[in-house]
Amino acid sequence: MFRSSDRGLSWEPAGTGLQGKYVKTILLVNGVLFAGTYCYGIFRSYDMGDTWEPASAGIPARYVYWLESDGSHIFAATYLNGLYRSSDMGDTWTACNNGISENTIMALHNFGGKTFASTLGSTVYSTSDGGDSWQNVGASLSGVKGFTDADGVLYAGSFGAGVYKSLDTGQTWTQINSGLSETDLWAIGSCDSALFCGVSSGAVYSRKLSGSSWSSAYSTGFRACVGSLTESGSNLIAATHGSGLYTTSNNGTTWVRCTTIGTVEIRSLLSGNGFVLAGTDMLGMFRSTDNGLSFSTANTGLGSAWIQCLVQCGSKVFAGTGESGLYVSVNAGSSWTAVSGVPATGIVALASNGAFVLASTTDSTLLISQDAGVSWSQTTSLVPSDKVSCLSICYNNIIAGTQNNGLFLSSDQGVSWSPVSAGISCNPEIRCLFSYNNHVFAGTAEGELVYSLDSGNTWIVHPDLLDDAPMLSLYTGGGELYAGANAGGVWSIPLSQLVTEVFHHTELAVIVYPNPADRFIEAEFPGNNVIGYSIIDMNGAVYAEGVFSGGYAIISTEELSSGLYSITFTSGNKYCSRQIEVVH
């Protein structure tokens, strides 16, 4: 939470009680501030945000979407749990859904002696008795995202149908879209004898209350907050916070928005062999089998609708939730099972090298599994103030990015940690990490790219910034390093400008068996291409190299010590990597 005392020209944190919490809605009632959050309920402040206290007694909902007051009551709209009402300034809450047949409330507004509520199913209800009973207003208003009123007229902004107005306190409605070239609205308000609405492209339109047409009030090009990036087939996929999911098959020249995910808040992405998973913060998991062009829900067994992070370890996929711990799937995300041994709390980051899995919780507890998620143990945590924001594994090195003190490295599976931010100014907040061969890339909250050519031991600062926009995600593909920025879209730089060896992420269909291996492994590849291979231990040392052709090779492992190795196959500028275990 932030606040401004100069009409938005400058901002400061509003106390520390809401730090790190997702605040969705704010309401001021009789000098008391209320904040509705995801996963943490409702908070209340008597000193304009200096201090906050919980005020959720009676509300079981995880997601508080909207707060409103009619002067006598406070109403809380929730996702999946309907409406709640408080008559004692938030001390206690009770459900008040009499007459409402849906359980997800999108917006609330008090006007003309009535309180209006819109639902996810495009129905609008009203109450004139303080929420004791609700009536369907009888008009089908598509996806109302918000209401406003001015000069005795009620307005509704919808996603898909533009703006409606009512001259009779919601009994009848008419559309007023003249001059409005976009009808997917996210916000509507009124000020200084004018209406304003914000649309999905990021543009803002205005309309004088006495006028008859909308005009552009702000049309600077909109660039989404790209929080996750991945690749599937020939498609680069970008997941955004607030603008949905997009794919491009021409390196970003044009993007296509996916319309089969029912929310615009995409928190995580993972691509595997024949599937793509997208985790949201309201509707759980979605799964694609056509390289991210279309998705369907994949929530069987999940106990959370907030999927914060994803990682794959062998044939298993792990999903970290915003508030309910960790889940695992053994069928590429078709169904899920809760993971025992992991606290039922928020998981902020996951990483795997195919041999072990690492998870970080909201309190920066670091957990490691060396048996693909069957059992877990706590590693030596960093200093509590070093709040972990992201993780990556490069060979045997674990790299942790923190919110307060830059980068840390462990080469003994989390037993001990060393700071490795030398040369990076001011130990910046690290927002994202990505490993590529023995290279690691990190993005900061200042929009700075830093990278390591030696598995995270030393770092280089790239001189260019992403317009000072926080860097939220990184990915390599097609010889490019892609970066997703906060309100900055997707950026790219040729990998050849950063590293000496560049391989495309196009997956070579190399099959390796047996695994574990004793004296040899067999490798199969369709076609007659010449394939180069390198066997690398978990410290990054190359133990063996060679080539084969004709689609088949026997590779000796007799001279290798028992342990875990990575075997990398390359053909032209394509490559793949497989984890193998040698047991003598």
UniProtKB/TrEMBL annotation:
Organism ancestry: unclassified sequences, metagenomes, ecological metagenomes
Alphabetical list of CDD domains matching this protein: Sialidase_non-viral
Record GO biological process: xyloglucan metabolic process
Secretion system C-terminal sorting domain location: 512-576
Family matches, as InterPro entries: Secre_tail, WD40/YVTN_repeat-like_dom_sf, Xyloglucanase_GH74
Entry-linked PANTHER family: EXO-ALPHA-SIALIDASE, XYLOGLUCANASE (EUROFUNG)
Protein name, as recorded: Secretion system C-terminal sorting domain-containing protein
